[in-house]
Amino acid sequence: MKELDTAKIHDVEQYLEWYTNLSVEEAQTVWSKLKKIVNPGYSPRVLDEAAAIDRFFTVQGGYGGPDPNNSQEAKWARQRIENADKLRQFLSFAEEFEQPLYIGKWFDGELAYIHMGNPSKGFVFCEPEKYITRIHAKDYSDVTPASLRAALGSARQEGDAALIPSGAENSLTKAGLNEQLKAHEDAMAELEQTLDDTKNAKTGELAELKAQMDAIKAELEAKIEKKKKKKKKKKRMAELNEKKRQMEEMKYQLEGQIYLLDSQIYAIRCYAGEVVKFGKIRSGKKASDEEPIVIHQKLRFLDEDLGRLASLYSIEWEDISMFESFLKHSTIALDTFAPNERCVVLVRLSRTGKKIASDNNIPYQNLLDTYDYYHGKTVGIIIRNGENVWLGWTDETRVHIDDDLIITQAITVDERPADTPDFLFESERERYIKKQREERKRILDGLVSRTFVYNVLQGVVDHSDMLPLPAGVKLSKQSPYVQYAVADAWLTDNRFGSFTDIIKRCNERITEGDMLLTCQSLVPEHWSDGRYVSADRPWDNSRGRGEKNRTHDCSVDDCKIYKANLVEFDAPVDMVRYRYPDKNIPLNSEAWRFDEYPEDFKGAVVIERYQTEPNRHVFLSVEKSDVWYYGRKADKPARANFEVYDKEIINLTYMNSVWLEWVINNKKLGGWSVGGKAVDYAYAIRYLKTAMDFIRTREVEEKALIDAENPDVCKDTNWPLKLSEWKLDKKVRTITPHQAKRFVKSILSSK
């Protein structure tokens, strides 16, 4: 894997002076020139540097009519200022937190594309030699691991993480193995050509046989010769395919050796402190060296943890622009992401790795956006020692850790070829082997990534004063000085089951006036005989009520609290359970039928008669968008009853903050689904926060009523939980002075 060159920026204000004085025409000329340089063939693949050119030099505007503020020139003037500020902020961030700037692309005399670890978010410099000192990455292709250790003063010690045998460290180089691989690939190309020639009867021997066969006219002799040829060709193909398998296996082994050798060299550089640069976030008094280093084995995800904090604490998110600033100034952030006096925590933006979409309902969205901009999918390493905190970023092309077990040295992947099942076709065998190898590579990649992290941390311990340990103590083994935290403390708390279980309890009884939180955006659904029909048939709308429903122009917003306007129940249906004592139907066969069809039960044995449980329908009162009547607009918007289903809502009437805080902390969703698809914690947190904000406001009012009766009751921190249980038991929806008196009496009598 090729290492990226780094950049040292100088005279940035001179560059920005040139940029901010570009006219619309000049910017368009620069844009066209640069796009041709980075993407001369106009490949449909979106290039990172091409996207940066678009962001920096594409002129917007020109469609705003007569307003001069919307002219192309006016908008371009604002664009220039905004882009210049972004570049200044980008470079200031790198300087403040001591992060390297990487050169993603360099075209001599034309342009350079730089980024800070997130390859998709960077900046373009024209004529880069004027403003950038290019620092070439060291070439390690001809270096053995042993010679690199000697050069860096990082001699191999007992217990060190090793990816290749100690004997190979003195002889193998990446360049040497690449030469072997190239020669092997050339030989494989020749073999592929031979296989193709044999398959199509193009080799000399087979061509001669084919010519002889064509000369034989007797049908019997022709058949004999054809069988001989087919048999010989089959034998030849089998021999060539076996040779191909052997060569493929050899290529696979060579590629594995190159990967592990390259990884071993990188691991040595990690240990020597060459790879991850730690910027200091906080400064102050160090903890005692006797304080154990707690290594948190579970990877932290920013979108999940910020959501948890936003749900539990009142934080001025609008004043926080970057994660680094949050960690620097907030005690809550420090206690969340570095909770021990001496500890190591790894953090990443998202569990899924998906792009974070902007959401106005998420108060910390700006922080997520800036994190994504600077760091992308990279894994950050947080180190704390007392009041001191450092933060460094790994290489996203090298370190791939999905969840837990951050520290491990178990590099034990069986590279021996497994017994391959017999396959009818060679293509099936090839697909099977490819899948097996991909899986082994995935496992090995995870283990190698953890080796990099371990070496970074052990290098910090051995080569700096950030986390000192007594001589001989390693992070690879737990001791009085090193502890592994493998799980969050609250994960053992199972008292409430899951969020799904809690929702089910709350939704079992919904009454008119209950406050319902929606879990998705809803629009009318039009059905006819099980098939969608056009929206111009409002009477087919399944969300409406009555023969002529009025919801064709209604919608329900996602993550919004509505009041249940109407709750109705279907009339029960008479049913019968029966079986047929027929010779063709087993005696134990049973079925359910409507009792209104007695002819269907001739000869049947009735087991029982019963009535169905009444089906419940819950309606919200929703404004109609069509508010025009007879050519004039209605003074008051019309409304219609819009039906919602249990899986689309959460009844907050019986919900309490204890339940919600428990779900927020332990992340036990219980397979909670939205729109028929199970969602992750990061997605669910917006609903949890909305519910928590509503519940806490209501509980303030409830507490005031309860305190008026007896102020001792709410001294128990679980009083909201007890109140919910009492509401459910007594079928009480709203706490009034009378109901508060009843609740207090119940609590006192239970003691």
Provide a brief overview of the structure.
This protein is of the alpha+beta class and 751 residues long. Strands 6, 7, 8, 9, 10, 11 and 12 form a 7-stranded mixed sheet that branches. It has a 5-stranded antiparallel sheet with strand order 4-3-2-1-5, with helices on both faces. It has a 5-stranded antiparallel sheet with strand order 23-20-16-13-24. The protein is globular, with a radius of gyration of 35 Å.
For the structure shown, list the relevant keywords.
751 residues; alpha+beta; 4 domains; seven-stranded mixed sheet; five-stranded antiparallel sheet; 26 strands; globular
Name the structural class: alpha+beta
Percent in helix:
40-55%
Mean pLDDT: 81
Largest sheet: 7 strands, mixed
Q: What is the percentage of strand-forming residues? A: 15-25%
> What's the overall geometry?
globular
Total strands:
26
Per DSSP, the total helix count is 18
Give the CA-CA distance, first to last residue: 69 Å
Low-confidence stretches: 409-413, 586-591
Radius of gyration equals 35 Å
